[in-house]
Amino acid sequence: MSDTEIEQGTAPPEARQAAQDAPRPKGIGPLGWLRWAWRQLTTMRTALILLFLVALGSVPGSVFPQRGQAPEDVVAYLEEHKTVGPWLDRLSMFDVFAAPWFAAIYILLFVSLAGCVIPRAAKHYRSMRARPPAAPRNLKRLPQSASFETDAPAEDVLEDARKALRGKRFRVDVSGGAVAAEKGYLGETGNLVFHLALLALLFALGLGNMFGYRGNILLTEGDTFANSLSLYDQFEPGRVFSGDDLPPFTVRLEDFQAEYETEGANRGQATDFTAKVHYREDPEDAEKPYDLKVNHPLMVGGAKVYLLNHGYSPVFSVKDANGNVAFEDAVPFLPMETRNYTSEGVIKVPDAQPEQLAFYAIMWPTAVTTEDGKQIVSAFPGPLRPVVTISSFKGDVGLDDGTPQSVYKLEGLGKTLQMVKDGQKIMEPGDTFELPDGAGSVKFEGVREWASLSVNRDPGRVPALVAAILAVAGVVASFMVRRRRVWVRAAAGKGGRTVVEVGGLTLGSPTAEFDDIVAALRGPEQDGPGAGPDEGGSGAEPVDDGQGDEPGAGRDTGAADESKE
């Protein structure tokens, strides 16, 4: 039997047979898929997921060293982890906040919040300007309701209700024999302010990342720093930063002072650091003094200059084999430990003739010998008795070929640079060491101190602070204020009296504010003798549910207090 043949008696009725030429349903098309993707992206669920991903993506930036903050630590990590390190580097684990995947999450979060919050804000604005919703048909079905009778005309009752609700800062509308009132939009406003502030915070962070910069410098006492790219020891520019954007300020380190505990169990613990600097906003301006302290930055040229660290810079003068002064300067030493600031450093003398010289030195700020007399240690972080030990080298220091080197490390040891035999010496300030075989001499002149400064310009800092404050205020408002609606209906009843019905609806638990409104509408005559069950007695007690009042509710209770009097 062919595919088109159907056994007699098994075919479905003609009415149920599909049309042979009926067109198949088409897909939603590219435009439909784009609309679907946009709706999914702008949901609050997606925004929360992206916010979680941003937080999760920031974790590697705290676990692994980052090139922007500590490039030397990244190099050390790659050397120690030769297998895992390159893979982590391919995934941008050492430059997380500049990684393409982190930028993609960040941008998607920004777009998601904007597409979610901005339409909500527009809708909320229209709702605030709209009239309160009309009264429901049956007010007794609301969570809070009350009814009573009065001799006052219905028009007077509605007017009194309008005034009472106005006095409690409700938005009021009178129509159809009823008063509709509403307030509490501040709660939803606070919620929107929080999300808009979060959006502004993301924008401010992106602004700072694009147009700001951050750089570190090391200044020895007496040195001056001019705000130029070439003078930074480390510089991290923003995405669209240009070197022409650097303001022409200068900072000179006049003196660095560190204070330490001198007695007791905390002897040697730092109590205060002060870098006395002089700065100019512009090269033509006069110098201004400033005491730079930890957490007290200097504001200059639109940037903040922070005090980060400090150390020692021993001063050396070196003469070559010809007796010429080939080097005379302070050399920054890096601390080997931060308790007593034992430090190490190198001196490179490429101008020495006929052979270049180099020295490796260790400095103890307050040198003492151990109990066995075999070692020298530092007993105090302050420079009470500075001592250095010198190890001498000669040969090629490797600077002539233009290859960049670390100023804190000697290259080519044992290859192009050979140790001088008997070239070790322990020196105090003023001592001179004559190198063997007339290779030259080195003199320990004294000790200066250096300070490490961070120059940080972030144009998004102030907007981010304002956004954070608004976000906190929005959260507080969203939790403290609830939406409340009240309706009052008055109509002629039996016996010529006016029947008044009051209903209330509160987002969350009912509040006592409704009882104050009912008491104000009843008036003093409803509380006197003869009030029947339908006039405020036990048979028509307004619903309270035993709930307490919300913060700020019942601020205008003058009418209720007068009725109780």
Automatic annotation (TrEMBL):
Membrane-spanning residues: 47-64, 98-122, 192-213, 462-481
Entry membrane topology: Multi-pass membrane protein
InterPro entries: Cyt_c_bgen_Ccs1/CcsB/ResB, ResB-like_domain
Domain named ResB-like: residues: 44-507
Keyword Membrane: yes
Residues spanning the signal sequence: none
Biased composition (Gly residues): 529-539
Region called Disordered, residue ranges: 1-24, 521-565
Location in the cell: Membrane
Keywords: Cytochrome c-type biogenesis, Membrane, Transmembrane, Transmembrane helix
Keyword Transmembrane helix applies: yes
Protein name: Cytochrome c biogenesis protein
Organism: Actinomadura algeriensis
